[in-house]
Design goal:
Organism: Halobellus clavatus
CATH architecture: 4-Layer Sandwich
CATH topology: Metallo-beta-lactamase, Chain A
Radius of gyration: 17 Å
Strand content: 15-25%
CATH superfamily: Ribonuclease Z/Hydroxyacylglutathione hydrolase-like
InterPro entries: Metallo-B-lactamas (IPR001279), RibonucZ/Hydroxyglut_hydro (IPR036866)
Number of domains: 1
CATH class: Alpha Beta
Distance between the termini: 47 Å
Number of helices: 6
Pfam families: Lactamase_B
Protein name: Glyoxylase, beta-lactamase superfamily II
Largest sheet: 7 strands, mixed
Strand order of the largest sheet: 1-2-3-4-5-6-7
Structural class: alpha/beta
Length: 224
């Protein structure tokens, strides 16, 4: 497990198979927002590093229902009692929490297009899961992917580009690609991913170029 600064005010805590993000001074000075909580087996270590590095967690935002993104939630809730924001329509997430016996209710149950405190806009891209959510830090033109996109090197390609998650991990791979068009209506110049390498140079243009190559698909909306 390692802790590093990605950009000013945003750190990542890297575990073996996944990372989480820590947003400092968000939504207010001195506040700490944690985006996702890794796997259950990472929970105790996650709490230790949060206590030692930040001293507090004021809010947790969960992006979707995969175990590697919410598994450590009970550890974080027990340690810090933070405000909890979760996607309202992500049935996989609520089912997993119920199966694990985790009795929590979100303080904020968000939907596509909602703006969370700190001017964080929710952009949902269904396909990977029912309501996989990317988070746009609108004041900084930074997009946190929430498994909407991976770094291309996750798939063995050169770093610096973007791909949808592998079909193996998607509930509906066609939708996971098609719905990426939802991102192009927003401005961002940095894209932070949970798997693979972040993209700091022209991520929106690279995403658009990837989608152009899908024009041969009969389900591309630009063929209508």
């Amino acid at each position: 497990m390692t802790v590093s600064t990605v950009v000013d005010g945003i750190d990542q805590i890297q575990f073996e198979h996944v990372r989480v993000f820590v947003l400092e001074d968000m939504p207010r000075e001195g506040a700490v927002t944690l985006v996702d909580t890794a796997f259950d087996e990472n929970g105790a270590e996650l709490v230790d590093i949060l206590e030692s590095e930040y001293g507090r967690v004021d809010r947790v935002i969960l992006t979707h229902g995969d175990h590697g993104h919410h598994g450590g939630l009970s550890h974080v809730v027990d340690a810090f009692d933070p405000e909890l924001a979760m996607p309202a329509d992500e049935s996989k997430l609520y089912e997993h929490l119920e199966e694990a016996g985790i009795d929590v209710e979100p303080d904020v149950a968000y939907e596509d297009g909602d703006v969370l405190a700190g001017n964080i806009r929710v952009i949902q891209v269904s396909g990977h899961t029912e309501a996989t959510s990317a988070l746009l830090l609108a004041d900084r033109d930074i997009l946190i992917s929430g498994d909407v996109l991976d770094g291309s090197d996750r798939g063995g390609l050169p770093a610096g580009y973007l791909l949808p998650p592998p079909a193996l991990f998607n509930a509906d791979h066609e939708a996971a690609e098609l719905n990426l068009y939802n991102l192009l209506g927003h401005d961002f110049d940095t894209l932070l991913v949970f798997h693979g390498s972040h993209v700091f140079e022209d991520p929106k243009e690279k995403l658009d170029a990837f989608l152009v190559e899908r024009e041969w698909n009969e389900w591309d909306p630009r063929t209508d």
